C-alpha cells in the first residue's frame, strides 16, 4: 500500500532507444522504452497475447516488438501488427497493453502511481530546492535489497546509528579520518573521535509549506564535548527521497518500492566542493562521485542491510517501535504517509474512510515512556497499544497489485495513535511533548472521521 504520488523508477540513462528495459516496480511489471522522438514510454510488461515478457523484446520503428510472436505495440499501447494474421488483418481491440503516465526529470524517470486523472490534472513531481537548485556534478547508480522501502527510508533519516553500525569495515577508516579526524593529528585520531560521537545535539525539524518536505538539522558528536560535532541537514520529500548534506559531502537517495519485500535504491553522490579548485576537469570530479557511489553500494549499504534485514515488523509503523525525541523525522514520515494513504482511499471511494479501516500502519505510533514497575506499562493506554501491536505485528503491506487498466490504484486510511514530538536534547527518559503540527494532524484526522 502506497500513497498516490510520482515515484522514481529508473535512472534516465538506463533507458535508451536501443532496447526496452523491463522492471518490476510498486508490485507490477512494467517496461520502459523511448519512442522515435526520444520520449520515454512506460507500459505493462506482459504481452496480452500469451504473456511474454516485453522486456526481452526489440525496438521496431516507433513500437516495441514482442519477442514471442512479433506483435507490435505503439506508444499508446495499441497493437499495430500481428504477423501471423498478415499486415491487413483486423486486430482485436483487446490486444493492448496498459500505459502509465511517465515523466523524465532530475535525471530520473518517474511514474504516476495513483488514481486515474487527465494529464493536465496530475500534480508536479515533488522536488525540494536541494534537488531543483543543485548544479553540482554528480553520478547516480542503483541496486536493490530485500527490505521494505519504509525501513530503508528510516535508516537514512537519522545518523546516530553510524557509530554502532559502521565501525568495523576497514574502508570505514575513510570516514574516520576525513569526517572525525583532526588536522593536528593528521586524521589518525578519527576512529577514537568517531566512537565518541554518540549524541545528537541541537536537533530541529522544519516542514515546507506543501507539508511534503521535512528538514532535520542536527549536530552529531560527543556528549561531553558538543563543540566537536558534525552538522547535518537531512531533507526528506515524499514519496521516497532523502538528501543528506554536511560540509564534507552531499548525497541523495530515492527508495523506489519494487514490491512488498524489495526496494530499488537509487543513489546519487555530488562532487566535493573542496576538490573543485584542485580537480578542474569535470570528468575527474564525476569519477570521484562514482567512486563514492560504489563505496556506498559495496561497503556502507551492506552494513545497514544486516540490521534492516532483521527488523520487525518489516514495514515501519507505530505501536511496536518506541520513538525517542531525536526520531521526530521518522515520526513525521510515518504519520504523513498514513494521512496520504487515507486521502488516496477517500478520493477513490468518494467518502471519508471509516475509523476502523487499515491505513497500512502497524498498531499505534507512540513514544518511549517511563514504566511504573519493571515489565509493566504505566498506563492503560500503553497496555492497549501493546496489545494492538501484538495483534497487528504480522501485518504485511506494500505496493498493491492485481489491477487491470491504464494506471495503478493504491491507497489507504490512517490509524489511531499519537506521534513523537519535538525534543531539544536529553529528557531523562521522558517523552517530549507533541509539536503543534502533530496536534494538527490528529485534529484533521479526527475531523475526517466525524
Architecture of the largest domain in CATH? Alpha-Beta Complex
Low-confidence stretches: 356-364, 372-450
Secondary structure category: alpha+beta
Shape: globular
Return the string of H and E elements: EEEEEEEEEEHEHHHHEEEEEEHEHEHH
Strand order of the largest sheet: 11-17-16-15-14-13-12
On the 0 to 100 scale, the average pLDDT is 79
Q: Strand share of the residues?
A: 15-25%
Give the helix level as a range of percent. Answer: 10-25%
CATH topology of the largest domain: Naphthalene 1,2-dioxygenase Alpha Subunit, Chain A, domain 1
By oligomeric state, this entry counts as: single chain
Biggest pleated-sheet summary:
7 strands, antiparallel
CATH class of the largest domain: Alpha Beta
The counted number of beta strands is 19
What does this entry look like structurally?
The protein has about 450 residues and is of the alpha+beta class. It has 3 domains: about 5-120, Rieske Iron-sulfur Protein; about 130-310, Alpha-Beta Complex (Naphthalene 1,2-dioxygenase Alpha Subunit, Chain A, domain 1); about 320-450, no CATH class. Helices cover about 25% and strands about 25% of the residues. The protein has helices at about 130, 150-155, 160-165, 175-180, 190-195, 280-310, 330-350, 380-390, 435-450, and strands spanning about 5-10, 20-25, 30-35, 40-45, 60, 65, 70-75, 80, 100-105, 110-115, 140-145, 195-205, 215-220, 230-235, 240-245, 250-255, 265-270, 320-325, 365. It has a 7-stranded antiparallel sheet with strand order 11-17-16-15-14-13-12. Helix 4 crosses helix 5 (about 190-195). The longest helix is centred in the middle third of the chain and has 27 residues, at about 280-310. It is globular, with a radius of gyration of 24 Å.
Amino acid at each position: 500500500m502506497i500513497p498516490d504520488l510520482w515515484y522514481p523508477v529508473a535512472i534516465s540513462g538506463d533507458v535508451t532507444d536501443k532496447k526496452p528495459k523491463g522492471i518490476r516496480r510498486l508490485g507490477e511489471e512494467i517496461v520502459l522504452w523511448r519512442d522515435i522522438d526520444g520520449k520515454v514510454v512506460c507500459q505493462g510488461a506482459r504481452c496480452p497475447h500469451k504473456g511474454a515478457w516485453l522486456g526481452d523484446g526489440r525496438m521496431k520503428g516507433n513500437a516495441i516488438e514482442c519477442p514471442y510472436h512479433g506483435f507490435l505495440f505503439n506508444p499508446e499501447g495499441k497493437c499495430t501488427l500481428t504477423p501471423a494474421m498478415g499486415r491487413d488483418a483486423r486486430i482485436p481491440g483487446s490486444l493492448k497493453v496498459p500505459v502509465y503516465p511517465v515523466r523524465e526529470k532530475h535525471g530520473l524517470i518517474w511514474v504516476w502511481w495513483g488514481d486515474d486523472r487527465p494529464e493536465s490534472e496530475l500534480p508536479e513531481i515533488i522536488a525540494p530546492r536541494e534537488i531543483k537548485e543543485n548544479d553540482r556534478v554528480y553520478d547516480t547508480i542503483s541496486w536493490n535489497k530485500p527490505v521494505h522501502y519504509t525501513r530503508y527510508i528510516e535508516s537514512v533519516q537519522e545518523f546516530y546509528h553510524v557509530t554502532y553500525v559502521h565501525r568495523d569495515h576497514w574502508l570505514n577508516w575513510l570516514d574516520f579520518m576525513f569526517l572525525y579526524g583532526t588536522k593536528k593529528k593528521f586524521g589518525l585520531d578519527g576512529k577514537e573521535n568517531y566512537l565518541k560521537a554518540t549524541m545528537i545535539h541541537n536537533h530541529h525539524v522544519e516542514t515546507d509549506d506543501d507539508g511534503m518536505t521535512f528538514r532535520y538539522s542536527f549536530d552529531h558528536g560527543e556528549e561531553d564535548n558538543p563543540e566537536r560535532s558534525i552538522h547535518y541537514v537531512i531533507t526528506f520529500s515524499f514519496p521516497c527521497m532523502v538528501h543528506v548534506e554536511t560540509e564534507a559531502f552531499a548525497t541523495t537517495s530515492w527508495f523506489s518500492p519494487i514490491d512488498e519485500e524489495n526496494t530499488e535504491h537509487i543513489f546519487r553522490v555530488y562532487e566535493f566542493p573542496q576538490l573543485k579548485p584542485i580537480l578542474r576537469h569535470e570528468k575527474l570530479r564525476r569519477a570521484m562521485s562514482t567512486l563514492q557511489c560504489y563505496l556506498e553500494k559495496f561497503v556502507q549499504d551492506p552494513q545497514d542491510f544486516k540490521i534492516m534485514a532483521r527488523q520487525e515488523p518489516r514495514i515501519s509503523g507505530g505501536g511496536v517501535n518506541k520513538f525517542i525525541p531525536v526520531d521526530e523525522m521518522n515520526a513525521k514520515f510515518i504519520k504523513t504517509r498514513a494521512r496520504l494513504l487515507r486521502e488516496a482511499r477517500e478520493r477513490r471511494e468518494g467518502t471519508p474512510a471509516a475509523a476502523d479501516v487499515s491505513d497500512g500502519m502497524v498498531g499505534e505510533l507512540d513514544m518511549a515512556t517511563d514504566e511504573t514497575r519493571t515489565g509493566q506499562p504505566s498506563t492503560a493506554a500503553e497496555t492497549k497499544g501493546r496489545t494492538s501491536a501484538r495483534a497487528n505485528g504480522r501485518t504485511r503491506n506494500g505496493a498493491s497489485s492485481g489491477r487491470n487498466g491504464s494506471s495503478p490504484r493504491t491507497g489507504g486510511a490512517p490509524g489511531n495513535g499519537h506521534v513523537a514530538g519535538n525534543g531539544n536534547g536529553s529528557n531523562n527518559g521522558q517523552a517530549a511533548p507533541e509539536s503543534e503540527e502533530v496536534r494538527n494532524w490528529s485534529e484533521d484526522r479526527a475531523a475526517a472521521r466525524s
